[in-house]
Design a protein that fits this description.
Chain lengths: 250, 100
Amino acid sequence: MTKLEKRITAVTAVLALAFGVTQNVGAMHIAEGFLTPGWCIGWGAICIPFLVVGVMQMKRTVSKHRKTLILLAMCGAYAFVLSALKIPSINGSSSHPTGTGLAAILFGPFLTSVLGIIVLLFQATLLAHGGLTTLGANTFSMAVAGPLVSWGIFALCKKCRLNRLVSVFLAASLGDLFTYCVTSIQLGLDHPSEVGGIMASIVRFMGVFAVTQIPLAIVEGLLTVVVVMGLEAYAKPELTEIGYLKEATA
Amino acid sequence: MSKRVILGIVLLAICALIAIFPLMTIKDSEFGGADGAAEEVVAEIAPDYEPWAESPIAPPGGETESLLFCLQAGLGAAVIGYCFGYLRARKKYGEPKKKD
């Protein structure tokens, strides 16, 4: 990072801490108006450093690794497709996968947060799905927390020398599931139950979101594996350039 | 067919089965969105909570909404298909002449 970039990152991180943490405990996507304003601002603030670093990384990718743009476009498109598919689930309701796992595995969590917020903005403004006031909270769950988990799991699996496709499956599906756990926690924190308080409330929301999401997370994991197999077959030079494949295998 | 192609097809088939299974086994459900279900839970836990904002532009009905969702999926699928086509042709017919 250049000096300027470092400074911007630091400033936003401080802002995030100031707004996000002092709020201190107090949906697919969470629908418009369903979080109180304080929480909306808090979650939004936490996302900002991720987005800022993401935009800087994206700029660098565009200028230095032009070749990999095709992968970036595909990752964004993949998130677009998957988050439009509302799939029926075992408990009689529907939800959609996030599609951010692929980007997180290939490009890391920061770039993914930028792709994720684009999808969320599209859905919030045009489809009345999610919301502009809850954009921060939804961005945190789908474009920051989920991808962080995906990225972390993939890195961990790589260290353990697990089969690469199995790692992709685990990373994508657990990241997807985690997104909705975070959503439940966000709703639970804001709407504590009268009996049992925050925890009871989180469990209720988990019952709605996480249970619905389990089969969908598996679907997302499998689909991501299929896409990655396709990429491994046809996009070796690009995958090598972003460091997904080692030089030797290219 | 190569092993990879078969694996890909099997994985896609499993995805389809996972999506179809609830439709076959649960008969008395409309499969509404989980976000709607969460709104109901909010109403139950905090009955006096009023959503304080509404979507500025909402599709007038289910048909328009499904149009927009299709558009979203279609645009994404088009990009993915185009890129895979490009990559595959490149592999098949060789790297295009280097420009940069």
